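Case study.
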Amino acid sequence: MSQSIRSVPKRADSPRSLRGLLADLDWHRYVIYIAFVVVFVFFAVLLGDQGFLTSNNLLNILRQSATITVIAVGMTYVIACAEIDLSVGSVAGLSSVSCAMAISSWGLVPGILAGLAVGLVVGTINGGLVSLLGIPSFLVTLGMLGIAAGVAQWITDSAPQPILDDTFNLAFGGGDLGPLPGLIIWGGLFVGLGALVLNKTRFGRQVLATGGNRTAAEFTGIKTRRIKFQVLLISATVASIAGMLYAGRLQSGRFQWGAGDELSAIAAVILGGTSLFGGSGAVVGTLFGALLIGLINNGLILAGLDSSQQQVVRGIIIILAVALARKK
Amino acid sequence: MTASATAVQMRGIHKAFDGTTVLDNVDFEVAQGEVHALVGGNGAGKSTLMKILQGVYSLDQGSIRIGGDEVRIGSIHEARAAGIGMVFQEFSLVPSLTVAQNIFLGAEPLGRGGLINDREAVRRAAEVFAEMEVHVDPKAVVADLGTAYWQLTEIAKAFGQGARVLIMDEPTASLARHETEALFDLVGRLKARGISIIYISHRMEEIYRIADRITILRDGRRLLTEKLTDLTPEQIVEGVVGKKIEGLRYRDRGHDVEVAPLLEARNLHAGERVRDVSFSLRPGEILGLAGLMGSGRTELARVLFGIDRLESGEIQLHGKAVSIASPQDAIAHGLALIPEDRRAQGLVLEHSVRENLLLPLLDRTRRGPLLNATAGRKLSDSLISRFAVKVAHPGRPVRLLSGGNQQKVVLAKWLGTEPDILILDEPTAGVDIGTKSEILEMIRDLADAGKGVIVISSEYPELLAVSDRILVLRDGTVTDDLPRRGIADEESLQLAVQGVHS
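After joint prediction, the assembly is written out as follows.
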């Protein structure tokens, strides 16, 4: 699923010994998985008797990470393409309130369409400004972060918008499918689709090529502007779906939903091994990045740290993991 | 098809940018299985002509036939489909992808459900390399490979996508000597398979070595297309530049060997690459430094200029021992170093020509704590005219200039500091032959004005043309100190460099 293990130019001699294989294996690529296991075992030993290992708690971690995972899958494409999208959190918030208001006025389907429309419109504006006018995505989406959050607050007068449609609440994150919470299924769906498209389709390859060396991609006949437009459209659309997942789980739309998620999503993507400078991306790594953040949050709460201490510890762990994952 | 069939035929090509004619009624023909050299000075139109063939630019008038059929090339895609492949000077690879992924970028083999079949791509890439008779692992990530492999990947990329015509733009610029040899062998094999190669190069010896015919462009027109056997190198150079070139021929300037040395180095030691080096440099003298890669030429320059620390030994200037611990010291003592990689070390590419020129001269254009714009403008304008830098406007970024003109800016920038001693590391790398001649003339003028000049170069003809004396370095030590008059020809210098003594 993730990219093939890098290998050195073939040498004619000697079949590879196990040691040679291990030396060739680039462990930096797997830092996220190692970190995940280490943190997991650490909490399991330390907090085993405080309910960390109960299936309920583990499902909780998955459920709490699911929305960030969904946003981060979209973000993986943007970062692999050497761009950034800071507006995803407020797009999720705006989508949640638009969807909630449309459901109460017109019903289920118009509600979902209204939520999606938020993503499509914001993504088109972001993508258009970046690819057509060449404005750095950092600035465009920083502006859009404020605009989307402001609009969400404005149209609702800062009031929560309750959603009374049970079908919506069940489908978007509130319900379960057998033993599995629906949110986890949504997360899994996005990770699976995201990984497949990035690794196995021409579009995915073109995203990586555009991020890795835009001139080279251009000279290979790839329309790099279009690719940049598309990744920003994808990211905003995915964020709008994440906003509806917030709305369904919490049975309301609020402008605060998703606030600050852009930073968690970026952290998950980078932790997962996607290069901040573009050119390489790993969706499964992103999943584990998001899970690691969820794991840390959960463990620190169980350990009884207050939220200020949690933030400090979380920051330290993220910096450590990224530092270890660097190649040089 | 017979060997003489035409692979590419461009007829009456006309192209103008913003009303300025860049190509005027140019005909260009390449036969099948031919290596065809394309030469011309900066602005002669060769890159525009090639970009039309690759589909980057559209043509205003004229026609293109490939393999006998008239084609319209409107995009890079269409050029590729027509069988045109390009090996870029600045490589067009994505470093984070594997060799196989790069080779099939944009044309990935698809398997079930329209998904990319990477295994098939690896297999086909291996086939392409086998056909080229070179060994490259298709699964290796490009960023982990050396430049020579990058180039092979570039060639495989063009070849693997069915190119029948390969355009190579200065392909040996970043290759070591044995890699160049391997490339020439590969060119021979491709040729034998009926692939045509358009070979763009400034290097005369390479052109004679591998090309069958040559086309010279000048000022947007075709000057001639001839068999190389019918032309002398002098005729080619003259054709490119449009006048007789004097700069590339050795001229005894009769400098004074009796005066006291300007610079005297005694038993210099620094690291692995500078071991017990002693030499002297007189005013008005041009001293060439010859040696293979890694012989310590560049390192010696770095020590003299205070970039690397001198471990032991003594440097004397004007007969007095001095300590040069930093480039600032070196500049204060009247030294200037013009580094090897002008883009990385010599210029701030995004800044204007003027800003670049004034960077080492800020003290001279200052009034109190503020910079004086008028004085700066005057100073930079005088440098631009003195060094004949071709520049549309001194306020434009230096990035937009041609390689030769960038090099002139670097030279002018340092000469503005009025140094006594100049160290030039590969001063003509990557510039066309006309500019090269101008730069060599410039170096002579400087020496005639009483400065001491040290020239480091891996091109023997250039060293022989400009030096009064040549110091041969090997493994960090001076193995020979030869007066120019004592060197018979290029071959004897080459033998001295390789340590073979007759």
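Observations recorded in class. The mean pLDDT of chain B is 85. The domain at 260-334+420-502 of chain B is CATH 3.40.50.300 (Rossmann fold). We will return to this complex in the next lecture.
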